[in-house]
TrEMBL record, chain A:
UniProt keyword annotation of Cell inner membrane present: no
InterPro entries for this protein: AcylCo_DH-like_C (IPR036250), AcylCo_DH/oxidase_C (IPR009075), AcylCoA_DH/ox_N (IPR013786), AcylCoA_DH/ox_N_sf (IPR037069), AcylCoA_DH/oxidase_NM_dom_sf (IPR009100)
Domain of life: Bacteria
GO MF annotation terms: acyl-CoA dehydrogenase activity; flavin adenine dinucleotide binding
Pfam families reported for this sequence: Acyl-CoA_dh_1, Acyl-CoA_dh_N
Organism in which the protein naturally occurs: Streptomyces xanthii
Domain Acyl-CoA dehydrogenase/oxidase C-terminal: 159-273
Protein name: Acyl-CoA/acyl-ACP dehydrogenase
UniProt KW keywords: FAD, Flavoprotein, Oxidoreductase
Essential cofactor(s): FAD
UniProtKB/TrEMBL annotation, chain B:
Protein name stated in the entry: Acyl-CoA dehydrogenase family protein
A GO MF label: flavin adenine dinucleotide binding
Source taxon at top rank: Bacteria
Classification lineage: Bacteria, Bacillati, Actinomycetota, Actinomycetes, Kitasatosporales
Occurrences of domain Acyl-CoA dehydrogenase/oxidase C-terminal (ranges): 226-371
Matches recorded under Pfam families: Acyl-CoA_dh_1, Acyl-CoA_dh_M, Acyl-CoA_dh_N
Length: 286, 378
């Protein structure tokens, strides 16, 4: 047993993180917020070019031939950077919908009662009859409500959990960075225990969620997927809230990125299937 | 990321399982959880069996993965846990193995592994708990002895111990972290008075210790004089890093028992309770995976567990308390019967966020040593 990232997985993480730092940094993120509903097709093509959508497809189908653990590592980075778009749906459509692997075709489908990115996508799969546009709480995820509850494949739940994990890790970094640099009462606020303890709890939630998400990617066990999902949601949502608290008044502004993490975390939790169902899976397994 | 075990490890598991299934039925009945003299006999007897079967040193001689398998299998089979041997096996032993001289290893390690000698930990004092380095118990040098006076408190199993890992102040003028020394004190030395303290669970698992001119040979010092704080950090990293691992498996077993109980009694139909149990299942499943993650890391870097143990300890101690609070919910009015096993465990679990460093102290450690936040400003 060696339950750690392999050299290759670490390199994959570094690669995608560098790509996203360069291509979807703070300015690009804020530019996207100012153009709600618009999908950056160039970025989409670059992600496809880096092998994102074909990551788990066999090489003779134009894919990279890697497994779910690698996909989870990559989606953690996508979540960290808050990359917008129907990433999960397109990833799962690769190999079934022509052009999805290469980034030419953007695919979406409903999960549960929600359909993300319906207007920007080229292909909408699943039963979306009667879909109604809503004003999405997340400026980076346009949403429709669909009357017929759509199934959520286990892989989708897990990939959303990976994104939640990445977002939680990022809010931890933001909180700690701010706590080190912001001074009040003549010292960094991170020296105050009330702030310090918020940060420590942020880290603990990230570490627990990470172990759960990675293990579920390795075992694909439905009970572990359910656990990973609930713990990652908790890490992302609580993480963003505590990060906001550490930022004080600044955290409550549109200008700070904290709310973008919180809102996306809520949306992902809404797209990953019913938490009640996940709980019943975990209860039934006892 | 790999969660499969090597062939060698699976062999170890298979042999251990077989040995356990042959050995456990022949064990004497367990003494009451509050009967420490009885538990000493029982726990050291178990350690002796482990030793004779070749598993005696699994807590500090074996690879981290082997130890993980050992803890998983013994707990699943319902075997006794380290119990009264806790300090000897999980911190004094590893500390001596890491820091002791050859003669000290020779003298102290085998008796612990054979179950002949039991250790206790004399760190905390009435005025030095979280602020451990504030300890005041004095040791002055007289020839080849230290003469020790002062008092210790919350000393677990002191009543039944043969040796005590004792922290004393050898230089009162040095800065408080610098004047401390780590000594092995024989518990039958003249001048030691042990007064058992009753815990809120009703047992006498810890005690006050009064030391009045106790003479301890200089040869019992582990590490250099006044270098005891460094040695103590080694001890504490063992305590936090790995001491609770086996219990996670035990908690998962209890969770299964709770569900079975709830199904039988009809409490299972309560959606709120089912949700509590589900979330605990997620929690302990993740804590087990986190353990495997930490063990894999330790295996790769070799040696002493890092501050990651504080992350684990923080989350685990709260999860354990939630588990037994939920047990009370499952039991209903029966949870108020102090003789109920889960009720005793519920009471005991209250110590987990205090002993071995309180949750507040663990958060400070995580924030300062992992996240690099500044000290001070409390
Ligand atoms: C069951 C049990 C077994 C034990 N066994 C042993 C043993 O075998 N050997 C041994 O040496 N000791 C043992 N201990 C002692 C244990 O290590 C101490 O109780 C613990 O370190 C806390 O110290 P204290 O009790 O003096 O509490 P205090 O340090 O007085 O703390 C009281 C409260 O103040 C908080 N606090 C203190 N300092 C800070 C700070 N800097 N920041 C924020 N909050 C703070 C604490 O978190 C706590 O909530 C045992 C304790 C228990 C409960």
């Amino acid at each position: 047993m060696h339950f750690q990232l392999t050299e290759e997985q670490r390199a994959l993480r570094t690669g995608i993180r560098e790509l996203l730092d360069g291509r979807f940094g703070r300015d690009a993120l804020r530019a996207a917020v100012d153009r709600p509903g618009e999908l950056d097709r160039d970025l989409w093509a670059e992600l496809a070019g880096a092998g994102l959508f074909g990551l788990c497809l066999p090489e003779d189908a134009g894919g990279v031939g890697l497994g779910l653990p690698e996909a989870v590592v990559v989606f953690e980075e996508l979540g960290r950077a808050l990359v917008p778009g129907p990433l999960v749906a397109t990833f799962l459509a690769a190999g079934e919908v022509p052009g999805a692997v290469t980034g030419e075709t953007v695919v979406t489908c409903p999960y549960g009662a929600l359909l993300p990115w319906a207007d920007a996508a080229d292909v909408v799969r699943g039963d979306v009859a009667g879909a109604l546009a809503t004003e999405s709480v997340d400026p980076l995820t346009p949403l429709h409500r669909v009357p017929a509850e759509a199934p959520v494949p286990q892989e989708a739940t897990l990939l959303y959990a990976a994104e939640q994990l990445g977002s939680a890790g990022r809010t931890l970094e933001m909180a700690v960075g701010h706590a080190r640099q912001r001074e009040q009462f003549g010292q960094p606020i991170g020296a105050f225990q009330a702030v310090k303890h918020l940060c420590a709890d942020l880290l603990v939630r990230v570490e627990v969620a990470r172990a759960a998400v990675y293990a579920a990617a390795v075992t694909r066990d439905p009970v572990e997927v359910a656990a990973a999902r609930l713990l990652a949601d908790e890490a992302a949502v609580r993480g963003a809230r505590d990060c906001l608290q550490v930022h004080g008044g600044m955290g409550f502004t549109w200008e700070a990125d904290v709310h973008l993490h919180l809102k996306r975390a809520w949306v992902r939790a809404g797209l990953a299937g019913s938490p009640r169902d996940a709980e019943e899976v975990l209860a039934a397994a006892l | 990321m790999d969660l499969t075990y090597t062939e060698e490890e699976e062999d170890f598991r298979a042999r251990l399982r077989e040995w356990l299934s042959g050995t456990l039925p022949a064990l004497p009945p367990k003494p009451a959880a509050t009967d420490w003299p009885g538990r000493r006999v029982y726990d050291t007897g178990w350690q002796r069996r482990l030793h004779d079967a070749g598993y005696g040193d699994v807590h500090w001689g074996a690879s981290p993965t082997t130890r993980l398998i050992f803890l998983e299998e013994t707990e699943k089979a319902g075997a006794p846990y380290v119990g009264a041997n806790f300090v000897g096996l999980l911190h004094a032993g590893p500390t001596i193995a890491a820091e002791g001289t050859d003669a000290q290893k020779e003298r102290w390690l085998q008796p612990v592994l054979r179950g002949d000698e039991v250790w206790c930990q004399g760190f905390s004092e009435p005025d030095a708990g979280s602020d451990l380095a504030a300890l005041r118990t004095r040791a002055r040098r007289e020839g080849d002895h230290y003469v020790v006076s002062g008092s210790k408190i919350w000393t677990s199993h002191a009543e039944v111990a043969d040796w005590c890992e004792l922290l004393v102040r050898t230089d009162p003028d040095a800065p408080k972290h610098r004047g401390i020394t780590w000594l092995a004190m024989p518990m039958d030395a003249p001048g030691i008075t042990v007064r058992p303290l009753r815990t809120l669970a009703g047992s006498t698992e810890f005690a006050e210790m009064f030391l009045d001119d106790v003479r301890i040979p200089v040869g019992n010092r582990v590490g250099e004089e006044n270098d005891g704080w460094r040695v103590t950090m080694v001890t504490l990293s063992f305590e936090r890093g790995t001491a609770f691992v086996g219990e996670v498996v035990a908690c998962r077993r209890v969770l299964g028992e709770l569900a079975a109980h709830a199904r039988k009694s009809g409490r299972w139909d309560d959606a709120v309770l089912r949700r509590e149990l589900a979330l605990l299942n997620a929690e302990f499943s993740a804590l087990w995976r986190l353990t495997q993650w930490n063990v894999s890391e330790a295996q790769a870097t070799g040696g002493v567990p890092g501050v990651g143990g504080s992350v684990f300890k923080l989350r685990y101690s709260h999860a354990r308390q939630k588990l037994f609070d939920t047990a009370a919910d499952v039991l209903g009015p029966a949870a108020l019967d102090a003789g109920q096993e889960w009720t005793f465990d519920r009471l005991s679990s209250l110590s987990y966020t205090i002993a071995a460093g309180t949750s507040q102290i663990q958060r400070n450690i995580v924030a300062e040593r992992i996240l690099g936040l500044p000290k001070g400003g409390r």
